[in-house]
Amino acid sequence: MHMKLSYQSTRGGESGLTASQAILKGLADDGGLFMPTEIPKLDVSMEKLAGMTYQETAYQVMKQFLTDFTEEELRYCIDHAYDSKFDTEEIAPLVKADGAYYLELFHGNTIAFKDMALSILPYLMTTSAKKNHIKNEIVILTATSGDTGKAAMAGFADVPGTRIIVFYPKGGVSKVQELQMVTQKGENTAVVAIHGNFDDAQTGVKKIFGDKEFAKKLDEKGFQLSSANSINIGRLVPQVVYYVYAYAKLLENGEITDGQEIDVVVPTGNFGNILAAYFAKQMGVPIKTLICASNENKVLYDFFETGVYDRKREFILTSSPSMDILISSNLERLIYLSTGCDAAANKALMEDLSAEGAYQATAEMRAFMKDFTGGYAAEDQNAAEIRKVYEDTGYVIDTHTGVASAVYRAYKERTKDETPTVIASTASPYKFSHSVLEAIKGDLGDADEFAIIDRLAEISGVKIPAAVEEIRSAQVRHSRECDGADMEKTVAEILGL
Ligand SMILES: *Cc1c(COP(=O)(O)O)cnc(C)c1O
């Protein structure tokens, strides 16, 4: 048996939680995020991992973090999550194209990488509830920039003992993303379009979590809140798995030798996915540079360049909407680590962010983050990259992966760094059909979304995923809207408080 980890808030208000307690809470009472007391090391060799299935790899990684889960519980969660919901047994295949390895993370239910963690979160959550003798119904509150909402609902729909309420920015998501959400089935699901952007939705959700009076009212009615956003440690841990798996597959396929370093490029919004890559590195995966790719909302690029995080800028709607974010929540976990786990220092910075819209990292903190580098791609660079990869290789990538791929190309040109590189490919091109086809073929006029999807199938030769076929004819079930200021009231209405 290995030592039990415990979890604490990045702002110092709570400590000593088990993994299951941290998963149930989602966010700490003081507004901080839960972190393990240390990032555990892998206790199995890469050579062994190279022969493992995705499910077995998931067990080897997750058992190190979720130390209060029994082997039986954890394997139950893993086996029910990573099954035929995915359209390939590999779960996360690596595709070599144009000088890089694209790690396809979009083979789940809702064809975006959010499925990698949200397929398992409902199992982790209900197992955690059982372990902690929770009687309340768990209400999952989720702010989404387009992909989390659908993936979370697909995971939690009709799961006994749970309800899920999703807030998305009206006008801030793709047509396919919106249709996927508003047609969601399940008696326990609710979808609300808010008049605002993703940051408004996320800030509103965090505010509801912080309202003690509201929590009391909920408890009286038999409810308690949790989160499916990447602030939940139960989202982050399953995301570490595919970086370990990708390295092991490169080794198994003879693309690298054991111990050889790789770089990873991650199209970033809330900083969850790239933080998972950093956790994988800390666990022992030989990752050299973590390249953080942003779209025109390049707050993270500026941060890694200057040490100043400044959200006071225009919020730009781009063709990679799942990265249209100015407050990257998970960066708080890296900030916390970079202060030497000084919760008071981290808390002061987060208070600066909330009061003044900015904070500055010290020289020591920046030195701690030296393995990260930022890059960004403007809209025209992203489109040019999607077209180039298609013209060179016939491989079609989505608009988020396009940002990462463009950033990688510029990085490689600038640094001459020839390290083998894994690019996180975060969505199926079908999810952003219009922008992808336009990048490849030019102006589409006013072509209908489904005509575009059929056209994309012709040029890519990739079968249209079930997730897209489903929404061609599905009935709209959700039409609720609200102002950012009324989110709590809306939650109360939905729950019948
Ligand atoms: C959520 C999302 C991202 C951003 O991931 P973070 O973990 O928030 O940084 C990138 N691409 C797609 C397609 C997404 O859905």
Biggest sheet layout: 6 strands, mixed
Shape: globular
In order across it, which strands form the biggest sheet? 3-4-14-9-10-13
Unreliable stretches, pLDDT < 50, 5 or more residues?
none
Span between termini = 45 Å
> What would the CATH topology of the domain at 94-111 and 238-466 be?
Rossmann fold
Structural class: alpha/beta
Q: What do the pLDDT scores average to?
A: 96
SS field, number of helical segments = 22
- Radius of gyration based on Cα positions: 21 Å
What percent of residues are in strands? 15-25%
Q: Helicity range of the residues?
A: 40-55%
Supply the CATH class of the domain at 94-111 and 238-466: Alpha Beta
CATH architect. name of the domain at 94-111 and 238-466: 3-Layer(aba) Sandwich
* Strand tally: 15
Q: Which cofactor or ligand species appear?
A: pyridoxal-5'-phosphate
Explain this structure to me?
With 497 residues, the chain is α/β, with parallel strands linked by helices. The chain has a domain at 94-111 and 238-466: Rossmann fold (3-Layer(aba) Sandwich). The protein is 45% helix and 15% strand. It is built from 22 helices and 15 strands. Helix 3 crosses helix 4 (71-81). The longest helix is centred in the middle third of the chain and has 20 residues, at 233-252. The termini are far apart. The mean pLDDT is 96. Pyridoxal-5'-phosphate binds next to helix 12.
Short description:
The chain is about 45% helix and about 15% strand. With about 500 residues, the chain is α/β, with parallel strands linked by helices.
